[in-house]
Amino acid sequence: EIFTIFSNRVTNGGKTTLAEKLKNMLPNCDIISQDDFFKPESEVETDERGFKLYDVLDALYMDEMVTSIHNWMKSPASSGVETQEPRNTCDNLKNVYILIVEGFLLYNYEPLNELWNRRYFLTLPYEECKKRRSTRVYQPPDTPGYFDGHVWPMYLKYKNELEENASIQVDYLDGTKSQEELLSYVYSDIIEELNKLRE
C-alpha cells in the first residue's frame, strides 16, 4: 500500500527539516525533493530586471520529477528505502510504503494533483521569510532586490492560486511554530490517515 504526502512551502519555511524528521519516524518512508530537479543556471530564463526566474515551473525538469515519482510508486520496495523500525507506529503499518514529496511548486502542477493522499503547505510572514532567506547561501547568489522583486511575489501568486482552487484540499501550517510542534502535528495526522486507509 502506498501513501503519498506533499509538502509545499514558502522559501526557507523549514520543510526539508520537517520531511527528514518525518522520514525517520514513519515506516518505509522515502523523500523526493523538487530542488533536485532544477535546470542548470544557463537554462533558467532571466527577466527584464536581470532576475533569474527560479520560482516558476519552467525552471524545473518537471517531467523528470513526475517520472521519478511514478517509478517509486511502481516499485517502492526496490527504491532503496531503508526499512527501519519506526517509533510508536502500529504493527499494521509495516507493509505500507510512504513517499514524501517536498518542494515549492507542486500543487500548481496538474500531472501531480491526483497523487497526493495529504497536502501540507508551510507559510511564513514576509519579515520572517526575508530574514531566514538572508541567512542562506544560494548558488547562484541572490541579486539585490531578488527576494522582493521575484521570490515573494511568486510565493503570493501560487498561494493565492491554491486558495482559490476549491478542488484541492490543503492543510496550511504556520512555519513560525517550533519544529517539534509542526512535526508532532503532521506525524499524528499522517498516522491517523494511514489507520483510516487500513480500516
Automatic annotation (TrEMBL):
It comes from the Eukaryota. Pathway: Cofactor biosynthesis; NAD(+) biosynthesis. Keywords: ATP-binding, Kinase, Magnesium, Metal-binding, Nucleotide-binding, Pyridine nucleotide biosynthesis, Transferase. The keyword Nucleotide-binding applies. Signal peptide: none annotated. One of its GO terms (molecular function) is metal ion binding. It catalyses: beta-nicotinamide D-riboside + ATP = beta-nicotinamide D-ribonucleotide + ADP + H(+); beta-D-ribosylnicotinate + ATP = nicotinate beta-D-ribonucleotide + ADP + H(+). GO terms for cellular component: cytosol. The keyword Cell inner membrane does not apply. Pfam families: AAA_18. GO terms for biological process: NAD+ metabolic process; pyridine nucleotide biosynthetic process. SUPFAM superfamilies: P-loop containing nucleoside triphosphate hydrolases (SSF52540). Belongs to the uridine kinase family. NRK subfamily. PANTHER family: URIDINE KINASE (PTHR10285). This is NRK1 kinase. It comes from Pardalotus punctatus (spotted pardalote).
